[in-house]
Design goal:
heterodimer; A: 128 residues; alpha+beta; 3-stranded antiparallel sheet; B: 175 residues; 71% helix; globular
């Protein structure tokens, strides 16, 4: 009735293959750990959330201490008087943010747009 | 074998196919879709038929009438959707003509349809990424391409069957 040619299958399978590969590439990026973006008065720092560390950021009125632990980030100490940034608590989702206005430190979790390991290491070495 | 067709006869064919195309796109509007951009592409059946009975130039002309008519009916003529529509149709038309004339009898309508749908969908996703939305618009690409593949294969099967069995098409088919 309908005679399919070899090339039909070639086209169908190549389209299928491209679709599957694209699916893997596009959706695998979603499992990457988020990046913590720290904006201070003078600099911008990036840290991956999968390594635990404590970061001290100096601002106009002193040092803000930010702790990254178990995939979330939070202010542990701040020189400001109301400590709103510390009270904000843990940030773990993309788009979460906290800030210390007196000390001009702003932290937020941004999506990790780079799918390759090298890119992550690159931002790491820059931030050190 | 050279087709014995007058210019008027061929122009009439464009009109008939364009009419079919508009009718089919109206039918398609009545079918509910999970996402507005996911289309079955019923209106592309006449375009695929035109590949075997009209010249490439006439096929492009038919494609243009189809896009114009569709956007008039759906009210998207002066919106960005029209640009998406015409870019998708133009690229898929080019792709189908390329596959058709590259491989001639070595490929059936199923392959042509799958190639056309893939190109059209890719171009539209790319345009969405570049012009309207951020780069994150690529997340719609996999479901878009997957449904496009399924519907295009079904449409291709139907078109192939139609071309081989239609009494109306007999004697009109080139090559």
């Amino acid at each position: 009735m309908i005679r399919l040619k070899l090339l039909d299958f070639v086209i169908i399978f190549s389209v299928l293959l491209i679709t599957i590969i694209l699916t893997l590439i596009i959706y695998s990026g979603y499992n990457l750990p988020g990046l913590l973006k720290i904006t201070s008065e003078s600099d911008v720092y990036f840290f991956t959330l999968d390594t635990d560390r404590t970061v001290q950021i100096s601002g106009p009125i002193g040092n803000s201490v930010i702790r990254i632990e178990a995939g979330s980030a939070f202010f542990t100490d701040s020189p400001c008087h109301d400590k709103l940034c510390v009270k904000t608590g843990h940030l773990n989702k993309t788009g979460d943010w906290a800030g210390c206005l007196p000390n001009k430190v702003f932290i937020s979790i941004v999506k990790n747009g780079n799918s390759s390991e090298e890119a992550i290491n690159e931002t790491d070495s820059v931030s050190y | 074998m050279k087709p014995i067709q007058s210019v008027t006869e061929k122009n009439n064919l464009i009109a008939i196919l364009a009419g079919c195309s508009l009718f089919l796109s109206l039918i398609e509007f009545t079918i509910p879709k999970p996402l507005p951009f996911m289309r079955i592409g019923l209106a592309n059946i006449p375009v695929m038929i035109s590949l075997v009975i009209l010249s490439p130039r006439q096929t492009f002309f038919l494609m243009f009438i189809k896009v114009l008519g569709q956007s008039l009916v759906s009210g998207t003529l002066f919106s960005y959707i029209f640009l998406f529509s015409i870019a998708g149709s133009f690229s898929s038309c080019s792709a189908m003509l390329f596959v058709k004339h590259m491989f001639r009898s070595k490929v059936s309508m199923v392959g042509i349809s799958a190639a056309g749908a893939f190109i059209s969908n890719s171009v539209q996703v790319l345009m969405a990424c570049i012009f309207i939305f951020e780069k994150s618009a690529v997340v719609i690409a996999p479901p878009f391409l997957a449904t496009g593949l399924v519907t295009s294969v079904l449409l291709g099967l139907f078109t192939e069957y139609f071309i081989n069995h239609s009494e109306w098409l007999k004697g009109k088919v080139r090559t």
